[in-house]
Amino acid sequence: MRKLLAAALCLAATATGCGAHVESSADPKTPAVTLTNCGKEVTYDKVPKRVVTNDVGITELMFALGLENRMAGFAMPDDKGDLTDVPWKDGYDKVKWLSKDQLTKENVLDARADLVFAGWNYGFRDGGGFTPEALKKLGIPTYILTESCRNGRTKTSRGIMPPLDALYADLTNLGTLFGVEKRAATLVADFKKQVAATAAHAPAHRPKVFLYDSGQDQPFTSGRYAAPDEIITKAGGNNVMHDVDDSWTTVGWESVVERNPDVIVICDYGDVSAEQKRKFLLSYAPLHDVSAVKHKRIFVLDYVDLVESPRNPSAIARLGAYLRTVDRHR
Known about the structure:
alpha/beta; Rossmann fold; 2 domains; 6-stranded parallel sheet; 4-stranded parallel sheet; 14 strands; about 40% helix; about 15% strand; signal; ABC_transptr_periplasmic_BD
């Protein structure tokens, strides 16, 4: 099944095969490039040659664009699923795994990075002093994952545009920065077609869906600006937390019970397995009368499916197929 999924993802990514270089990346002597990132214009004086990334989705955005030759390394925990049979395995084979934790200034300096591509809560963090501002003082430019852009509603709330628009914006920006505009445009066009094909077959009665990431006292979930919101919507469901103006955030169990989801989607990663999460949900007394729990309608997607990444369109297709089954058996 994983091999079939990898093949499907590969075809969606590029007609020339995974890891193929459709076009050469720009010459390092190319004039400065100005992009809009998180609502601000940012100018890059040169094309980066030693990019360091944080986390799996961000890393695979670079791989999907065939930019592994522009990377000095990546950091991410080893709890993000099997990476041996993925569309961009060549990238993982070629690029150095710098750390199984979040990036640090030491990682970046040791790698002689000339660009750090990360996101708020995907590497960038105020507490550890690993911020775009701190790296700028070291002379290291940054690019912020658009899904994670802070929106100003609170000090930490994130999300400035619909999640898939964030994915397309990042692919387009990276394509411009690295001189692979045609490859970026092809990816975006193919992803939009795949998403539209799934959305066109949405069930007549859209199931209510709750995304469960983790947490027992309080669940960690997706508001309207994290990738699961649009994954659920385009798959044919309605995210019960769509009214939460944030990306990944914590809510109360009482709000889950009140909204009574028909389906729960588990985000699979970390020390707690998907099966352990499933057992908890089915046995947690406050959820006893929730429709998804009563009917055991629980669907599992990998972490990388549910953060901004080139795997989002495939996740939409798989969840869409499940939601259509749910609708048929109402």
